[in-house]
Amino acid sequence: QVMLVESGGGSVQAGGSLRLSCAASGYTFKNACMVWFRQAPGKEREGVARINTFAGSTLYSDSVKGRFTISQDNAKETLYLQMNNLNPEDTAQYYCAAKVGDCPEDFPINFAGMNYWGAGTLVTVSS
């Protein structure tokens, strides 16, 4: 079965950094479309970073562009999200998700289009 397990969340002060990980199993990781989403209380689930694990191409939402970097380690079948210059607006539950078929080519990316989800990891950024 497909499993996605996030880790690396925690609490950090504004301006700090965190790296999230998503360990994948049960499918061909190197040929996947994977997306990091986040959801803050009272807000809709928002896609922030996308990677085509075969081509290595990446896309970012405007809200994180220039601050976050999505990457992959095929040997470890793990997806990463390096988050720099964090601010309180980044506080949210972060999820990794995988999609069967082609990757979305533009943001916003609707969460309803994703096929597999992890349980999430919480990121809290304080002033």
Quick recap of the structure?
With 127 residues, this protein is mostly beta strands. 0% of the residues lie in helices and 49% in strands.
Structural features, described:
The structure is a single chain. Helix content is 0%, strand content 49%. It is globular, with a radius of gyration of 13 Å. The chain has 127 residues and is mainly beta. Strands 2, 4, 5, 6, 9, 10 and 11 form a 7-stranded mixed β-sheet that branches. A 4-stranded antiparallel β-sheet has the order 1-3-8-7, with no helix packed on it. The N and C termini lie far apart (41 Å).
Helix content: under 10%
> How far apart are the first and last residues' alpha carbons, in Å?
41 Å
Taken as a percent bin, the fraction of beta residues is over 45%
Runs with pLDDT <50, length 5+?
none
Rounded mean pLDDT score: 94
What distinguishing features does this structure have?
127 residues; mainly beta; four-stranded antiparallel β-sheet; 11 strands
